[in-house]
Amino acid sequence: MAHTRILNTPSDLHSQDLAGTHKRAETVSVAPASNTLSTYDREGYVILRGLLSDEVRQAAERALRDLLGPTGRNNFEGFSTQRAYALLAKTRALDPLIAHPQILGLLKARLHAQPLLSACLAINIGPGETPQMAHADDGFYPDMRPDARHGLSVIWAFDPFTRENGATRAWPGSHLWPAHREPAETDVWRPAVMEPGDALVFHGGLWHAGGENATQDGRLALTAQYCAPWLRTQETMSLAVPPDIVRTLDAPLPSLLGYQIHPPFMGHVNGMHPNRLLD
What we know:
Blueprint: H1 10-15, H2 34-43, E1 45-48, H3 54-67, E2 81-84, H4 95-98, H5 101-110, E3 116-125, E4 151-157, E5 169-170, E6 190-191, E7 199-203, E8 208-209, E9 219-227, H6 237-240, H7 243-246, H8 253-256
Antiparallel strand pairs: 1-7, 2-3, 3-9, 4-7, 4-9, 5-6, 5-8
């Protein structure tokens, strides 16, 4: 391994980056307020209001609308819902959202200081769409509960989110439910009512679903899902975003895409830090 030193104890071993801290760049994060964290811990989600400037929001919206694909292939994707994947390979307009300082602060506080971007997709719920199946974004990981600190998700609004047009449905406190419990008809959900530029941030164990769209207009959102650095991501980001594009990205986006080491050496390439592939 490159740039190693002799280690004396197992705990020392597991805390060190044996593949080298190649060109580690400082990233800017904003620590969340205590009431934000208490709401997140209690309810399983929190809505952050007005995070984007008009310029950033409008550029991101234009890019998303240009990239939207066909409607879904099944009830989960939504037969009246358009989606688009591998977004960081296709536009730079979303970079400020994926690595937004307030999102990075929440990730550091409640998930991990060096998370991975697990999924990044656009979702446009069209008129007539039916309610989505309730699910937890961490549900595919084994042994998700009761701890469930595997993931954190963010849904950015580009249209107003209302009960009528398919605002995300959230079951408050459901991230604390025991294994095998699912939402029942007696469990009350809430719509995540938002304005463009707001962000719904939620625990990976929270039960939620896209809502029914009973209006004549679409409901556009960007969904970014993050996971702890020792877990496999939903999208294979090293294939979805080629190295030639990653070379152009500012920190911390390469790290979010997997160009990082989880100590002592998870993520190395030929014994060295993956950032060497970008040189």
